[in-house]
Design a protein that fits this description.
single chain, 499 residues, alpha+beta, Arc Repressor Mutant, subunit A, 3 domains, 3-stranded antiparallel sheet
């Protein structure tokens, strides 16, 4: 249970949050026309006669959009409705040529589901929490209005008009900005795993309507506001923070919260009134007479289910149980499609190069992929040519480190040169003198000299001053110019000091 509370003058207030996430379906064509969905085209370049609502043009459902919505529902363990129907949501706006939006109110394609947000004590989530999902329905997007610098004229771009959206409606199960942020990140991750939405919030292909209300703990639900079209996780969290505090201040000052639609001002971090919040009856929903109901067959559903990849929770569990990774590493590696893709490619390369099972090298590869390699890349900045960081090159470095030929510090130095110059790691290690000395004879000679010159400390160590062991290791490494294999140094020192 989240412990997020707002302390007001009259006591503690609880925040109640629900999100309606609009996710653009991955499809080359729009929901009811063959027009392109490509992002960044010239204004009004991707507009068919259907999108422009020319008389006599009839919509035809895009089967790929239906397939992707079904696969998404399966990924969140939701009820898939074999029967669904499209409705007309009637309202007038300049970017909606038809005068209505084709959506699904009464019979959505996906029913109730859920997803789990993971424990993050530092982030304000003390335990794993299940967030319920009420429904997913498929609908058309509207166009876009662009305003000139002088508020006298607006321009209409219909490229987005008719693009397929999945509206993913959560239950009001979230109780803090942190939980809402984790929910959006997890949902985005699932969509990208499935491939049903690219999740590019900055391009508008995923955005959230944020519903917020406040109440005293244990009281009935308060009046909610809806802040529209929030396009980043950080902004979702800011909206909740601001709106919850605004509502508490308003109520405690003797006012009341209006049920309304609001907009988020990124520059000021505040919300402002857009319009009063409509109810379903205000839109005069009715079944679209131009579209037959969608009826799904069992064979189609089986194909959809078989096409699903290993999903984030299952992958995370496998990383922990089969590869032996820590909870933290497993969570970070499975959060994004690109992250686990790079990790699994590198893991396969390293395991093959070392001739070891994946589980034997997974922790080494995870630490390299999450900490060492990103640190080196960041330190080099523009000097780093990432095309040089091939899985084969990184595996070669890890192989030398695994064999004790190079230290962790030397691995970093070699990787820096690989990134800058693209040379082979083995050649760099030889040419630049970046190899550990594992020759027991050379190390033993250096240790004998150090022990002979520090007899007083040897006696103190043997008398019980164990911390002096670090002194002897340091002196040996200094004598060997940092190139001695630490494991060999430690073993020889232990043997000699025990004698």
């Amino acid at each position: 249970m989240s412990n997020y509370r707002i302390q007001g003058a009259t006591g503690e207030w609880e925040v109640v949050i629900g999100l309606e996430v609009h996710a653009q379906v991955t499809s080359n064509a729009k929901l009811f026309s063959g027009a392109s969905t490509a992002f960044g085209s010239e204004p009004n370049a991707n507009v068919s006669l259907i999108d422009a609502a020319m008389p006599g043009m009839l919509p035809v459902p895009n089967a790929e959009c239906i397939r992707q919505a079904v696969r998404t529902g399966m990924a969140i363990e939701a009820q898939i409705n074999k029967y669904s129907r499209f409705d007309r949501k009637n309202y007038f706006y300049a970017d909606l040529p038809q005068g209505y939006q084709i959506s699904q109110l009464y019979h959505p394609i996906v029913g109730e589901g859920q997803l789990t947000i993971e424990k993050d004590e530092k982030g304000g989530i003390p335990e794993d929490k299940i967030i319920g999902i009420e429904r997913i329905h498929v609908e058309q997007d509207a166009g876009k209005l662009m305003h000139d610098q002088h508020p006298t004229m607006s321009y209409v771009d219909l490229n987005r008009c008719g693009v397929a959206l999945m509206e993913i409606v959560s239950k009001a199960d979230m109780r803090s900005p942190a939980e809402a942020g984790a929910y959006v990140r997890k949902l985005r991750s699932i969509l990208r795993y499935v491939g049903s939405c690219d999740g590019n919030m900055e391009e508008g292909s995923m955005r959230a309507d944020v519903n917020v209300s406040v109440r005293k703990v244990g009281d009935p639900l308060g009046t909610r506001t809806e802040t529209k079209n929030v396009n980043s996780v950080r902004f979702v969290m800011q909206v909740i923070e601001y709106e919850a505090n605004r509502q508490v201040d308003l109520i405690e000052d003797g006012g009341s919260v209006d049920q309304e639609t609001r907009l988020f001002d990124v520059a000021s971090g505040t919300t402002r009134t857009m319009r009063s919040k409509e109810d379903a009856h205000d839109y005069r929903y009715f079944p679209d007479p131009d579209l037959l109901p969608v009826e799904l067959e069992d064979d189609f559903l089986e194909v959809c289910r078989a096409s699903l990849p290993e999903l984030p929770d299952a992958k995370r569990t496998r990383y922990i149980e089969e590869l032996g990774l820590s909870d933290y590493n497993a969570s970070v590696l499975t959060a994004e499609v690109e992250t686990f893709g790079r990790f699994e490619t590198l893991l396969s390369e390293v395991a093959s190069t070392l001739g070891k099972p994946d589980a034997k090298v997974a922790t080494q590869v995870a630490n390299w992929a999450l900490s060492v390699a990103p640190g080196v890349i960041k330190s080099l900045g523009d000097e780093a040519d990432l095309t040089n960081a091939t899985p084969a090159a990184q595996a070669a470095i890890l192989k030398m480190q695994d064999a004790g030929d190079i230290s962790g510090g030397q691995a970093k130095e070699i990787f820096e040169i690989v990134l800058r110059e693209g040379r082979a790691p083995d050649e760099i290690a030889e040419a630049e003198g970046l190899k550990q000395v594992s020759d027991t004879g050379a190390i033993e000679a250096a240790i004998d000299e150090i022990l002979a010159g520090n007899q007083d400390k040897v006696e103190q160590y043997k008398a019980g001053k164990d911390k002096l062991f670090g002194f002897f290791v340091g002196q040996t490494m200094k004598a060997m110019q940092g190139k001695a294999n630490p494991q060999v140094v430690n073993q020889i020192l232990k043997d000699k000091l025990a004698g």
